UniProtKB/TrEMBL annotation:
<keyword id="KW-0012">Acyltransferase</keyword>
<dbReference type="InterPro" id="IPR002123">
    <property type="entry name" value="Plipid/glycerol_acylTrfase"/>
</dbReference>
<feature type="domain" description="Phospholipid/glycerol acyltransferase">
    <location>
        <begin position="21"/>
        <end position="139"/>
    </location>
</feature>
<keyword id="KW-0808">Transferase</keyword>
<dbReference type="Pfam" id="PF01553">
    <property type="entry name" value="Acyltransferase"/>
</dbReference>
<protein>
    <submittedName>
        <fullName>Lysophospholipid acyltransferase family protein</fullName>
    </submittedName>
</protein>
<dbReference type="GO" id="GO:0016746">
    <property type="term" value="F:acyltransferase activity"/>
</dbReference>
Length: 217
């Protein structure tokens, strides 16, 4: 990644040096887990990502992911809850868990963060550790999910962390759908604000992907 990118890293002071923490990133490209991991590693923490279980079945790469203490997510199966249990255990052990609240690369045409899923809120509510919003931009130049094109060369990549999201309003709340949605929206709003600051633009209305693949505000 050092050879492929020119890095603008900011906000390390917001990431606790020790202890359990959740880093919530926006997701602009299939390449950005590499830039995100590089950023977290440079911050002095070891990143533990929640990643699709299918990735862990790739020969060699899957074994490396297990060795590197990454967490498989079994989507749409009876084992789906295992990822949350594993993430809770990792956080309680003092680890740094990285999560993409959107659950996939954004479908917003200009790659702004879209509406998040509630996994990050469930993890935050179950552990009570800080949730750090992290914005990233530029990895789409390595691989653009819209055009499916790769680019080689040192591309500029920005990753900025912000202060912990204030979730005190929901401390000790029951994990109802309303509570989880409100917490998730608060986390995503902080990420969107950081992306806007990074780009020097005002975030557009939140993009909500539909099953047909289109979004609505």
């Amino acid at each position: 990644m050092t050879a492929l990118t020119r890095r603008d890293w900011r906000g390390f002071e917001h990431i606790p040096a020790t202890g359990g923490v959740i880093l919530a990133f926006n997701h602009v490209s299939h390449a950005d887990p590499f830039t995100a991991a590089h950023y977290v590693y440079d911050s002095g923490r070891w990143p533990e990502f929640l990643a699709k279980e299918s990735v862990f079945r790739i020969p060699v790469a899957g074994k490396i992911l297990h060795w590197c203490r990454q967490i498989p997510v079994f989507r749409g199966t009876v084992d789906a809850g295992k990822a949350l249990d594993a993430a809770i255990s990792a956080v309680h052990a003092g680890d740094c868990v990285v999560i993409y609240p959107e659950g996939t690369t954004t479908r917003e045409p200009d790659l702004w963060p879209m509406k998040g899923k509630t996994g990050v809120a469930r993890l935050a509510l179950a552990t009570g550790v800080p949730v750090i919003p992290v914005a990233q931009d530029g990895a789409q130049q390595l691989f653009d999910p819209r055009t499916k094109k790769f680019r080689l060369g040192r591309v500029p990549v920005s990753v900025w962390a912000g202060p912990p999201v204030d979730l005190s309003e929901w401390a000790d709340a029951e994990p109802t759908r309303v509570v989880l949605d409100e917490m998730t929206d608060e986390i995503m709003n902080r990420i969107r604000e950081l992306v806007g600051e990074m780009r020097g633009e005002t975030p557009p209305p939140i993009y909500i992907p539909s099953r047909a693949g289109k979004g609505q505000a």
